[in-house]
Amino acid sequence: MEMVAKVSVHGGHSGQFCNHATDSLEEVVKAYIDQGFSWVGITEHAPGVSEELLYTDQRQAGLTPALLYQRFGTYVTECRRLQALYADRIRLYTAMEIETYSGYRQFVPDLVAVFKPDYIVGSVHFVDDINFDYSPEMYERAAAHAGGVDRLYHRYFDLQYEMIEFLRPAVVGHFDLVRIFDADYRRRLEQPDILARIERNLQAVKKHDLILDFNLRALAKGASEPYLAEPILHLARSYDIAVVPGDDSHGSGDVGNFFDRGVAILQHHGFSTQWRRPV
Predict the structure, then answer these.
(1) How far apart are CA 226 and CA 45, in angstroms?
(2) Highest taxon of the source (predicted)?
């Protein structure tokens, strides 16, 4: 029977550098080691570009873009230290999860030039500069601004496509996060104007030979399936796109959550478990 290496292409947020996570980064790394992970991408959130575009928890904590920029530099230094310290026990990547808010086309390349992450995870948490996944209320606000939930999906996948083509991130994070507070997402994913956008984006992922994050945090939050939803998973398999588990852990207690279930789903759909590395 094939041995499946434990990996996370999108993981390792910590309370040391993320306001909605817990524990120190070293504690999180030790949890991955204790669970026998072969390699892990530590994918801390990029600092906010402006006061208006901080996460709600960052504003509540009194943080500023300048402080977050400084903290991100500290994260990179610490993650590099842990890379070296535990190199004989685990392969760590010092990575960065980026955003698509106003100004990202200049801001993200500047961050990459300064901090030189091993790779970036291209994520969309902001649509029209509204952090739609923070709460059901913020989701409703984003949908109202877009002109309804269907149009929120349109805007989300259009932003994602723009980001993929512009940045070509090694990993595309939680591809269908836009469904987070939508109980009717399965029906919506079948709508021709939404499905066409999904197919276009997957074709871009294939064209640029990127990895899709099979994000298991959805299960930890009570969803019935990870990001990617099964219909999108079918399409990704038909395009022969690399799909790799990401536990998207936010503390040592999240490390490895639902990994076995995720592997079983991917094996059922015929994906290779000889995991593609992001670099």
Answers:
(1) 20
(2) Bacteria
